[in-house]
Amino acid sequence: MIEQFSSEEIKLAGGMKARGLRWEPQVGHYVYDMTRLVEKSSPFQDGVYFVLNYDYFMGLIGGVDKFKQMMIWLPTWEDARKILRSLEVTDAELSEHLLRESSFENGGERLATYRLIITLLERSSVQSRLSGSHFNSKRNQNHNESLNA
Q1: What sign results for the dihedral spanned by CA atoms 51, 56, 58, 61?
Q2: Residue 33: beta bridge partners?
Q3: 53-87: per-residue pLDDT in tens?
Q4: Looking at residue 62, what is its pLDDT?
Q5: What is the DSSP string of 13-72?
Q6: Hey, CA dihedral for 17, 81, 26, 41, is it positive or negative?
Q7: Within 10 Å of residue 143's Cβ, how many Cβ atoms?
Q8: Phi/psi of residue 21, each to 5°?
Q9: What is the dihedral of CA 78, 81, 86, 91, to 10 degrees?
Q10: 143 and 88 in contact (C-beta within 8 Å)?
Q11: What contacts 45, CB < 8 A, 6 or more positions away?
């Protein structure tokens, strides 16, 4: 058995999902089956699957919408970087964040990116709820503060 994702990464990925991270299942994605619907054993830790046969997974679960509902996407390092770029985090800002978190020393780069994504999703959620307020007009200031937190 290969532990592809730590239990903390799986927990944080669930946190990203709970905070509204959108994704479209694709071949090449790792997912965590939180419902234990997939009965076949995994070559990774229990409940973690690699989507290789898209049609098989979608048929087994009952379609894309149900798949997204029942599974937790486990973004790879590159997936996490794409998410951060979509949240307007530059590579330089990410690099500074990873250095501040000492994530290179302990091999926790992906964990640190997951935490940063959650922070940004939380702030984005607050901003959308406060749409039209002075908080929303200070978007760039809050973006930079979240990276330095």
Answers
A1: negative
A2: 71
A3: 999 999 989 999 999 999 999 999 999 999 999 99
A4: 92
A5: HHHHHHTT------TT-EEEETT----S--SBSTTEEE---HHHHHHHHTSHHHHHHHEE
A6: negative
A7: 17
A8: -65, 120
A9: -130
A10: yes
A11: 1, 2, 3, 4, 5
Give, as one character, the DSSP assignment of residue 112: H
The two beta strands, 30-33 and 71-74, are antiparallel
d(C-alpha 53, C-alpha 50), whole Å: 9
Residue type, 66: K
Q: Which amino acid is at 110?
A: R
* The overall pTM is greater than 0.90: no
pLDDT, one tens digit per residue, over 5-56 is 999 999 999 999 999 999 999 999 999 998 888 877 777 888 899 999 999 9
